[in-house]
Specification:
This protein is mainly beta and 407 residues long. The chain is built from one helix and 28 strands. Helix content is 1%, strand content 41%.
């Protein structure tokens, strides 16, 4: 007998089409049909019995291999169940109205991937590991139109930098391929990076190098971003934040418990939202220390000192274009301020753009009306010569974009 139920798949790398054959019973049956059978010359026609007839109706269900939310809270890619199994993924929920599965792809040391929305984690994660060696993954572009990789550190807990130099001498995370990326270590859970994927099909290598005794763990999400995608980061920005408000922190800040890392040169950018012409930055709250250490870059020997300008901030600093205490949108700071005009560099342990603030040991809001909104981070190679290095934490800043009607 004929099998009237079948499932067929027409496959390519980016689109799946599923054909469902649905039988429909014909209600119009022809009665008394005569058929001839081979037999003796005088054989008579034989009437056929009433036989139902079926018509196959083909329904096409088409869905793209887009990102999907897995039941576990991770992100996956929408595939057919067979494909998910073939590429070594784990089905974790459904997608495409139930015709596909949300396929979560996880890779360990020594792997390579050319799929979007994948995870790189240490062997036996979520268990920690305490071994000497290196663990890497090679990321190949899913298409030639990919311009960036976004790395989201769901968990990154490596050993702390050297307490004197703040260099990553024991553990380090290294990115090779594309534009230079600073080496980081310590605890960076919740941080992210945008990596230039370079031209052509050259892969990007992500490597953890570990030495010494420490219980480590890492899990990162790797997203591939096409050149024309709306979520593509600004070129040259290692970190790219979106939204009217948010928080920016240096690597290994750890809520003012970590150590500022050496050898850091990168930019942090904030997407300019429609209807907003400026941005304000304020130092985060520090509940751990009597004197706030939520901003501490090359701290002076005397506490509570504001340090601004390129002649004062020469070793470690952040640069905010035309940083000012004024909300007027000009380069002139608030009346009576020193200096009178906006500055670009800020360092020390007090986050403020003027040295004669009414509360000199307290942080103050800094405004900038230069677009694109960006902060340049410069931390030199050795903290041993920069004040009291053991207490330099880095920075944590809250930002809020300012409406165009506010000045």
């Amino acid at each position: 007998s004929r099998n009237i139920w079948s499932l067929m798949a027409q496959l390519n790398h980016t689109t799946r089409k599923i054909m469902l054959l649905i039988p429909i019973l014909l209600v119009g049956i022809t009665e008394g049909m005569e058929i001839s059978k081979a037999g003796p010359q005088n054989s008579l026609p034989i009437k056929s019995p009433k036989t139902p007839k079926f018509l196959n109706l083909i329904t096409w269900v088409k869905f793209d291999n887009t990102e999907c939310a897995a039941t576990s809270g991770d992100n996956g890619t929408c595939f057919t169940s067979n494909e998910c199994s073939e590429i070594g993924g784990t089905p974790d929920g459904t997608c495409a109205t139930g015709f596909g599965v949300c396929c979560v792809l996880q890779y360990n040391c020594g792997s390579k991937t050319n799929y979007n929305s994948t995870y790189f984690l240490n062997n036996n994660y979520p268990s920690t590991f305490n071994t000497i060696g290196q663990c890497s993954i090679s990321v190949e572009k899913v298409s030639t139109d990919v311009c960036q990789l976004r790395l989201d550190f769901d968990e990154m807990d490596l050993s702390q930098p050297d307490p004197a130099t703040h260099q990553c001498t024991s553990d380090r995370f290294v990115v090779t391929g594309g534009a230079p990326v600073p080496i980081i270590c310590g605890r960076n859970t919740g941080q992210h990076m945008y990596i230039d994927a370079g031209s052509g099909n050259s892969p990007t290598s992500l490597t953890f190098i570990t030495t010494g005794s420490f219980e480590r763990a890492f899990k990162m999400k790797i997203s591939q971003i096409e050149c024309g995608a709306v979520n593509r980061g600004v070129e040259g920005c290692l970190q790219y934040h979106t939204g009217v408000s948010g928080t920016i922190a240096s690597f290994n800040y750890m809520d003012a418990e970590g150590l500022q890392l050496s050898n850091q040169e990168y930019s942090v950018c904030v997407r300019h939202e429609r209807g907003f012409c400026g941005i304000s930055y304020t130092a985060c709250q520090d509940p751990l220390h009597t004197i706030s250490e939520s901003f501490s870059l090359s701290k002076p020997s005397s506490p509570g000192v504001v340090m601004v300008g390129d002649t004062t901030c020469t070793t470690d600093w952040i640069s905010i274009p035309c940083a000012t205490t004024s909300t007027a949108g000009s380069y002139i700071q608030a009346s009576g301020s020193t200096p009178e005009t906006c500055v670009d560099r800020v360092c020390g342990e007090v986050f403020c753009s003027v040295t004669n603030h009414p509360s000199p040991s307290m942080h103050c809001p800094i405004y900038s009306f230069v677009r694109p909104f960006a902060i340049r981070v410069h931390l030199d190679a050795d903290e041993a010569d920069d004040g009291t290095p053991a207490n330099n934490r880095g920075f944590c800043l809250h930002y809020v974009q300012q409406p165009c009607t506010s000045y």
